[in-house]
Amino acid sequence: MDLDQFIAAVEILRRPELRGLPVVVGGDGDPAKRGVVATASYEARQHGVHSGLPMRTAARRCPDAVFLPSDRAAYEAASDEVMTALRGLGYVTEVMGWDEAFVAVDADDPEAVARQIQQHIRAATELDCSVGIGQNRLQAKLATDFGKPAGVFRLTHDSWFPVLGGKPTGALWGIGGKTERKLSELGIHTVAELAAADIAVVAGRFGPTIGPWLVQTGRGLGSTEVSAEPYLPRSRSREITFQQNLADWSQVREQVVLLAGQVTRDVEEEHRPAIRVVVKVRYAPFFTSTHGHALAEPTSDGELIAAAALAALGKFTDRRPVRLLGVRAEFADPYEDR
DNA sequence: TCTGGGGTCCTAGGACCC
DNA sequence: TCTGGGGTCCTAGGACCC
Questions:
Q1: In Å, what is the CA distance from A278 to each residue of A205, A235, A268, A274, A329?
Q2: A92 vs A220: CA distance, rounded Å
Q3: Chain A residues 229 to 288 with C-beta below 7 Å from nucleic strand C
Q4: Cβ of residue A324 lies below 7 Å from strand B
Q5: pTM of the entire predicted model
Q6: What distance in Å separates the CA atoms of residue A182 and residue A206, rounded to the nearest whole number?
Q7: Cβ neighbours around A259 below 10 Å, total
Q8: What domains can you pick out in chain A, each with its CATH number?
Q9: Phi-psi sector, A290: left (phi>0), alpha (psi -120 to 50), beta
Q10: How open is the CA angle A94-A14-A43, to the nearest 5 degrees?
Q11: How do residues A166-202 score in pLDDT, each as one tens digit?
Q12: What is the pLDDT of residues A31-80, one digit of tens each?
C-alpha cells in the first residue's frame, strides 16, 4: 500500500481550495531559501517538479505553484490514522515510513482485497492510495508504481519479465544511480540482462552479499516475510543545513551542543540508552564526513551525550566553512541476543 | 538546478588477538 | 630478519530508501 502524493494530499485535505492546483511542500516553504521539495502534487509534477528538487529550481519551473512549509507533526498524525485503519482490516501489516506498508494476504482474488484496502483507507482518512500485488515484497513494491494514482496493479513471476525485463536496472527497488552505472560497466543495462548475469562476475564487483542479491533482484525474487513486530530504531538523529555557512568553529561547537540536546530528548523517548554518538559535517563544497565517539557505558544522559558529540567533533581537523551539522545517537543492536 | 532530513544496511581497512 | 593465517571488533564511508 502506497499513499498517493502523501504530503501534498495531507495539505490539500486541510486546505481544500488547493485541490487541482500545483502544490509544492518543502523546507520552510520559502522557495528562495536552501531546501528541497518533499512532495509535489501531480499538477506540479507536470511542470517537472519532483521530490529532492531544490526549492529554488521548483519555483523557476513552476512559478504559479503554492509553496508550503513541511509540517512533520501533521504528516505523522495523518500517517498514524492511515496505518491504524489499515491494521484494522486484520491482516499482518508492516509499516515502512509515513506513506507505505506491506500487507501479507494469501487470497484467491487479491485485486478484491486491494480494492477493500483502498476503500477502507479512503473512508477512514479521505486519502487515496495505490496497491501493488506481488508474489513477494519486491514485486508488490514495484507494482504500486504501476498502479498510481489510486489504482491496483499485479506483478507475478510470470509477468515479471514481460513488464520489467526491458527496463533499466535502476527501475528496481534497491538499485540507484551508482549501482546502475557500475552494472553498465559490466555490460548489464536491463533487468533481463541482470537476471541472466553470471553471479560470480557480479559478486566480484559488488561483494558476496550484494552481488548475488542484485542478480536475484533482477530475477524478481525476494523475501515474502511481512512482520507485524513493533519497530525498534537503531539510531535517532538530528541535522540542520544552515542558511549561511558557519565559518566560526566556536559557533559550530555551539550548534553541535544544541543538536545533541534534541537528540537526547529523542533518546529519552525511546527508553533505551545510546551507546555511541556520531557527528556529521558537510562542508561548503558539499563534501560530507563523519566521526564518532563510543560512550563509556550506555546512557541517556544529556551531559554525556553532548560531551561525546564534542569529542566526535574534535576528530575533525578541517576548518572550512560548514554547511550542515548532524548529531546521531546509536542504540545497541536490539536483536543481538537472539 | 547548488543539492533537506531521517533513516538502514553493507563494505573495507586497521587494530588486536591467537 | 621480519613474517602466516584466521578471526573479531571498531570506524568511516558508500549506497539506497522514504
A1: 30, 10, 17, 11, 6
A2: 22
A3: 276, 278, 288
A4: yes
A5: 0.94
A6: 9
A7: 22
A8: 2-71 (3.40.1170.60), 73-155 (3.30.70.270), 161-218 (1.10.150.20), 235-331 (3.30.1490.100)
A9: beta
A10: 80
A11: 999 999 999 999 999 999 999 999 999 999 999 999 9
A12: 999 999 999 999 999 999 999 999 999 999 999 999 999 999 999 999 99
Taking the CA of residue A301 and the C1' sugar atom of nucleotide B5, their distance in angstroms comes to 24
Amino acid at A191: V
Residues in Cβ contact with A17 at an 8 Å cutoff, skipping those fewer than 6 apart = none
CA of A180 to C1' of C2 (A): 45
- The gap between A313 CA and B15 C1' (Å) is 22
Beta pairing class for A23-25 and A66-68: parallel
Residues in chain A: 338
